[in-house]
Each structure stands twice: as structure tokens, then as C-alpha cells.
């Protein structure tokens, strides 16, 4: 049984493929187009998945599209009738986008010669948030769990709760557009002077520099309700019928300004992009983060009371808020939390495929997924061929010696590009496409920003830690394979690893498992043997672009930055060579 899952004509376009229930490949289209959050039809991602599975499109049994234009159709109509005066172009755009989604059989036929009617019979349209729920539950280790999907909006829903058991999930409740925690957070991201799609993580990074002094003002904008849900005070937000997000011919998502003049009356004039960050801005960020966390805990506590379950699976754009994720077991009744590597909209492709596999076909669930390595991979021979074509000097080094030499480079203030095995599915580099540094160096953040990243000084870098040592360094001992949670670092250890300790004493960790990441694990173990510290600073292998996907992109990034060493499989390129 072969199932192809797709997120198309939506931000973070992607594809995933299941063969007999096993996830064979999953990748974002942006890794090929080199445009962040690319939102068109994922032709190259589909072709990659088919190639990895060794099948043609004709051999695919089912095609799962993570979007259903018919979902909540009458609610959409009622909303438009109730809110007249919206932009006609917005309505046209929505109808055109819906038409593209519902006529994908023609697009597939253009990829591979097939009769459109043959493919049409294979296509399943799976509602956006059901795809999110499926992406979180079916790959989880839980036989039964509460479910939460929460993001900006998809198929007229912004939040959905449910229960998963065995190979089925049941929807319990949902919140309709435009009442959205994701849109609230994006509006405040824009007010704070971060205008681009996907900038929300900057607010999360800025928040620890402030005090949550303005939560009462922020709560004027969003209120928790007695039914365990929430609602927005819509006077503070752009009218939904005027359009929220648009996609141009370049397929880049653009979000309209979501806050209104009333927001500026409440909080003051919004910050411009180049305006210095004041303490007030930092305090607003802290207040926004606090209210967001309280809203998430409100939803989850109600869900826990309703289900009585100890396990919860979470997905959706808001599930990328790793600070909130790390606090769930300490602020709700849930004891175990699973969040997939691609909790954002790229995970829709995987979720839609699993929904068809389990919910519709009622197939037995496959093993839990704790590896994000489902993307591109390259041999030493292919890497050598590239370097020789480019006239770049290199050395071939066996693993035993390689780990020693990379560790020595790191200890001597080196910054290393690490390109190993398959690329990761999701926004986090997890030792497949990573830039590494010594976490013990207090100047490591400055080194990275000077040599490569050139990003805001308030944004933290993350620790990859051998999973056996988590309890020694963090106050919460948990398995965090996808860098999806932030925990407090033990006070006695903070001065030992200043480069990965945020200003509030926390770290967004990745627990590294020897079975899942054998080479990355051994590199960190070699570093531990030399330094006593079982941690490396890990950030994504890129420079203001999507994470590198190919050896050529890795080499180009190395050459245009001041990285000290590039390691691609067993091939090493050094700056001084």
C-alpha cells in the first residue's frame, strides 16, 4: 500500500510518502526552490518522495491532500453574509485557491503521463486540522491520547481538539476563524516590528529579556472562555474579509497587517522594523508570550478534564512555541507530550497520508517516529565529484579519526558545518544539516553571528545533548528528539554551557539517541570524552535561506561565510586549505 501525502498551495508546501504504513520520505518544497515557506505545488518534493520509495506516480494507491475546500462550507458562507463589505479580490483568491486544490488531478497528470480520471479516483481531501491531529497522533508512541491542533487558520478552523485511540481519531471541539491564537501571536509579532511570515519565533526569543507587566492589557485582545476555549476581541484585529494571507506568482506567503489602530491605542505606536528594541517592547513580548501560554494551558486543562488522559499529542503552527511546550507537564494534568518534527504546516503532508492510512483504511499503526531524517542524502563519491569539479581541496577521513578532528576544531573556537546522512523534516536542524560550536564558550554566540548567522543578538542557540545526561543538566528529564521543548537548565550548569543558556536560564534542547543518530551521537560523545560536557551548540546549516539540502548548497554557504570547517559525510574541507 503506497500513500502519497501533500501540502499544496499553502505555506510550507511539502510531500511525504508511506509504503505499507512506514514513512519512507518527507521533505519541504522550500529545500528545492530555496525560498522560505514556499507555497506552490510541491512538484520536486513529490518527485523526491517517489524516487525514495522506488515507485512511479501510477503505482501510488492513494493521494492525500491536506486541505478540504468543502470543510465547514456553510459556516464560510454564513460568515461572508454576516460580514459584508469584504474585498471582492479576497473572495476571488479564495475561490481560485480552492479550485486549484480540488483539481489537482490535472497537475498530477502533467507530472507523469496518466489519465486524469485514474488519478482523480485516488485523491482524498483531508481537512487541514484533521491532518495536523493525524500527524501528531498516529506517529506517536501512545495507544490513546488527547489531541490538540492549534495554528493561524486552515479550512476555516483555527483550533481543534480530539481523542486518538488505536488507528482512529475523534474530533471533540473546534474554534472557527477568525478567532485564532496563531493570528493573535502574528499580530503582536508585527506590532513588535517583525513583519515577515514566520517571524513569530523572534518574539519567543525576545520575551525572556522582558517582564510580563502588561498581561492585563493583552488580555483585552484575547479572552479564555468558560467552555475551555477562547475568543478574540475582533476590534483589535484586521477584518477577516479584507484578507489575511496572500500568495503571489512567486508563491511566497505574505501576511497583511493584522493589528488595527485600536491596538495602537491600547499599546502605543507599533515598532518599525529598524527601530531599536526598548525595554517596553521586551516587556510586551514577555506579556504576549505569557498570555499565549496561559491560553494553551487553559485549552489543555479543559481537554485533560474532558478526557481524563495522561498523554497529549499537539501540532499546528502554535505547537512550534517550544517555550510553552516545555511547560505543559508542569502546568496541566498531562504527563506525556508528543509533538512531531514538522508540527507546522509542512507536517500536513505526512498527517494527511497517515489519516488515509489509519482513519480511512483502518490499517494497523506503524512504529512510533522519533527520527526526523526523511530527506535528501548523498554519498561520499557524489561529494568528491562536486568538490573536484569546483577545484576545492579536501580530505577523506574515516569516522574514528573524523570525530577527533572535528572535536579538536570545536575546542579551538572553530565553527563547523556538519552535513551527515539524511536531511531533517521540519524547521529544526537535528544533526543532519547543522552548524556546530563549543557550548562552553561565552563568545560562541558572537562568533556564530559574526562568521555566519548575522541575526538578532537576543535569539538563543540550542543545545544537542546525549539523552543519558539530560537529568544532569536540565531540571526536567524528558525525551525531546525534535528540539520542540524548552526546559530550565540546572543553575549549577549554566556557567558551564553559557553559549546555549538563554538569558532566563533555559535551553531549547534536542536529546540525541544513539540508535536514531549514531554519527551525531558519536561526535558529541567524543566531545564529552575530551571536555566532560555531553553537549554541542547546534544551529541550522544556512545563512538567511532554507536549510541547505545538497552538498553544493553546503559548500556555497561555507565559502561565503567564515565557517572554519565543512564536514560532508567523510569529506572535510577546511578554511586554511
Describe the fold and architecture.
The protein has about 575 residues and is of the alpha/beta class. It has three domains: about 1-140 and about 345-360, Nucleotidyltransferase, domain 5; about 150-340, ATPase, nucleotide binding domain (Nucleotidyltransferase, domain 5, 2-Layer Sandwich), CATH 3.30.420; about 380-575, Carbamoyltransferase, C-terminal domain (DHBP synthase), CATH 3.90.870.20. Helix content is about 35%, strand content about 20%. A hairpin with a 5-residue loop joins strand 9 and strand 10. The longest helix has 29 residues, at about 280-305.
Summarize the structure.
This protein is α/β, with parallel strands linked by helices and 577 residues long. It contains 22 helices and 23 strands.
Amino acid at each position: 500500500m503506497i500513500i502519497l501525502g501533500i501540502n499544496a498551495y499553502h505555506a510550507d508546501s511539502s510531500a511525504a510518502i508511506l509504503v505499507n504504513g512506514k514513512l519512507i520520505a518527507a521533505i519541504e518544497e522550500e529545500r528545492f526552490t530555496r525560498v522560505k515557506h514556499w507555497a506552490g505545488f510541491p512538484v520536486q518534493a513529490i518527485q523526491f518522495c517517489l524516487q525514495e520509495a522506488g515507485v512511479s506516480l501510477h503505482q501510488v494507491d492513494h493521494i492525500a491532500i491536506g486541505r478540504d475546500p468543502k470543510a465547514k462550507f456553510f459556516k464560510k458562507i454564513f460568515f461572508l453574509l454576516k460580514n459584508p463589505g469584504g474585498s471582492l479580490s479576497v473572495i476571488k483568491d479564495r475561490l481560485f485557491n480552492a479550485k486549484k486544490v480540488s483539481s489537482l488531478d490535472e497537475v498530477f497528470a502533467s507530472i507523469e503521463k496518466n489519465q486524469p480520471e485514474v488519478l482523480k479516483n485516488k485523491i482524498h481531501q483531508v481537512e487541514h486540522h484533521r491532518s495536523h491531529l493525524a500527524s501528531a497522533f498516529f506517529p506517536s508512541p501512545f495507544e490513546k491520547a488527547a489531541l490538540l491542533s492549534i495554528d493561524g487558520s486552515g479550512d476555516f478552523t483555527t483550533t481543534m481538539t480530539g481523542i486518538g485511540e488505536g488507528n482512529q481519531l475523534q474530533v471533540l471541539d473546534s474554534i472557527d476563524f477568525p478567532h485564532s491564537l496563531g493570528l493573535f501571536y502574528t499580530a503582536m509579532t508585527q506590532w513588535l516590528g517583525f513583519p515577515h511570515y514566520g517571524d513569530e519565533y523572534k518574539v519567543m526569543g525576545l520575551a525572556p529579556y522582558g517582564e510580563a507587566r502588561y498581561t492585563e492589557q493583552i488580555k483585552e485582545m484575547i479572552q479564555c472562555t468558560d467552555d475551555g476555549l477562547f475568543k478574540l476581541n475582533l476590534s483589535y484585529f484586521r477584518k477577516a474579509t479584507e484578507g489575511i494571507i496572500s500568495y503571489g506568482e512567486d508563491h511566497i506567503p505574505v501576511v497583511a497587517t493584522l493589528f488595527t489602530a485600536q491596538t495602537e491605542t491600547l499599546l502605543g505606536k507599533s515598532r518599525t522594523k529598524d527601530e531599536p528594541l526598548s525595554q517596553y517592547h521586551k516587556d510586551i513580548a514577555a506579556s504576549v508570550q505569557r498570555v499565549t501560554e496561559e491560553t494553551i494551558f487553559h485549552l489543555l486543562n479543559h481537554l485533560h478534564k474532558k478526557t481524563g488522559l495522561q498523554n497529549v499529542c499537539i501540532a499546528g503552527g502554535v505547537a512550534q512555541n517550544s517555550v510553552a511546550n516545555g511547560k505543559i507537564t508542569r502546568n496541566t494534568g498531562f504527563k506525556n507530550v508528543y509533538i512531531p518534527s514538522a508540527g507546522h504546516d509542512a507536517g500536513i503532508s505526512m498527517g494527511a497520508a497517515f489519516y488515509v492510512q489509519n482513519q480511512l483504511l483502518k490499517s494497523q499503526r506503524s512504529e512510533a517516529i522519533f527520527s526526523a531524517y526523511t530527506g535528501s542524502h548523498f554519498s561520499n563519491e557524489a561529494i568528491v565529484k562536486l568538490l573536484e569539479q569546483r577545484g576545492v581541496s579536501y580530505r577523506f577521513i574515516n569516522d574514528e579519526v573524523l570525530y577527533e578532528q572535528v572535536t579538536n576544531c570545536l575546542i579551538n573556537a572553530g565553527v563547523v558545518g556538519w552535513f551527515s546522512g539524511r536531511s531533517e523534516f521540519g524547521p529544526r536542524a537535528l544533526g543532519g544539516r547543522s552548524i556546530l560550536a563549543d557550548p562552553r564558550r561565552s563568545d560562541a554566540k558572537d562568533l556564530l553571528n559574526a562568521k555566519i548567522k548575522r541575526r538578532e543578538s537576543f535569539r538563543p542557540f540550542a543545545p544537542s545533548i546525549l539523552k543519558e545526561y539530560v537529568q544532569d543538566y536540565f531540571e526536567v528529564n524528558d525525551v525531546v528528539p525534535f528540539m520542540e521543548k524548552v526546559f530550565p537548565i540546572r543553575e549549577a550548569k549554566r556557567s558551564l554551557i553559557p553559549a546555549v543558556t538563554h538569558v532566563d536560564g533555559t535551553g531549547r534542547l534536542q536529546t540525541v539517541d544513539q540508535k536514531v543518530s549514531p554519527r551525531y551521537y558519536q561526535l558529541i560523545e567524543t566531545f564529552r570524552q575530551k571536555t566532560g560536557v555531553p553537549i554541542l551548540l547546534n544551529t541550522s546549516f544556512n545563512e538567511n535561506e532554507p536549510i541547505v539540502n545538497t552538498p553544493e548548497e553546503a559548500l556555497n554557504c561555507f565559502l561565503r561565510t567564515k565557517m572554519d570547517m565543512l564536514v560532508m559525510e567523510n569529506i572535510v574541507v577546511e578554511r586554511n586549505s
